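#onboarding

Welcome to the new folks! Below is a worked example of what a typical request in this channel looks like: someone posts a single protein sequence, and someone else replies with the predicted structure as tokens. Don't worry about understanding the tokens yet, we'll cover that in week two.

Example request:
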Amino acid sequence: GVNAALFVIGMFIETSAAIIVLGPILAPVAMHFGVDPVHFGLIMVVNLALGMITPPFGVNLFAACTVAKIPLEQIIKHLIPFVLVVLACLMIITYVPELSLGLRDLVFK
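Example response:
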């Protein structure tokens, strides 16, 4: 639910603006359901970053095409493997919080 919503929001709204607007709204809800604040922050940032590289309004995608002087159609076919890897990482971050929070817990006991 939240992953899909953040992903779609990331396609249309710049990441910083989405964090400023949605962070104060969604963070307390996540805490209420027992989600660690750092874990929720990671989920939010990765979702929004993924949205920034996917069409229809992937701002980072258009910027990369402009800098590299490559048409959007040419870069999209090469983007698919990267999006799939980021999606896999997002699923791991979301459903195995011990992996994303383990280092923090080791350092800050």
